[in-house]
Amino acid sequence: MIKGVKIKKITSYYDDRGFFVEVIKLGEETFHPVQQTSYTETYPGVIKAFHFHKKQDETWFICKGHAKIVLHDLRKDSPTKGQTDIIYSGENDKKLIFIPIGVAHGYQVLGTTPIGLFYHTSKPYNPKNPDEYRIPFDDLSINFNWDIKNR
């Protein structure tokens, strides 16, 4: 796993009324101060990649649907510089994913339903000076193959 990336397996507590999950909790290793929470829905088959931040950490939680999340370490002084990791997450395999500064990230929606993604950032979004740096999904320096693998 890329240095600094943290994953919390989310436990669902079910009863006759439905279920409950704890997502972000003070004291856990995936916790960071949150200054903004945003929510997005993305349609099946869509790839949203890549971007990274220089001033903020980000934590992702997919609450519905399923996605392939791809992380790539861009940090010059990191022992995992250049490493690419894949994390599968979604409503049937709930995870909270902490993404540190300097790690490029993106995702591909899997299956036939949209995903719902909450992302929590350690700094608020500033449209006049956004801390968001984009890299094309097919950038040769990352060289990630987004094709679905039939196994």
From TrEMBL:
GO aspect biological process, one term: dTDP-rhamnose biosynthetic process
Site (Participates in a stacking interaction with the thymidine ring of dTDP-4-oxo-6-deoxyglucose): 125
Keyword Nucleotide-binding: no
Any one GO CC term of the record: cytosol
Keywords: Capsid protein, Virion
Pfam family, any one: dTDP_sugar_isom
GO molecular function per UniProt: dTDP-4-dehydrorhamnose 3,5-epimerase activity
Catalytic residues in the record: 51 (proton acceptor), 119 (proton donor)
The protein's name in its UniProt record: Spore coat protein
UniProt superkingdom: Bacteria
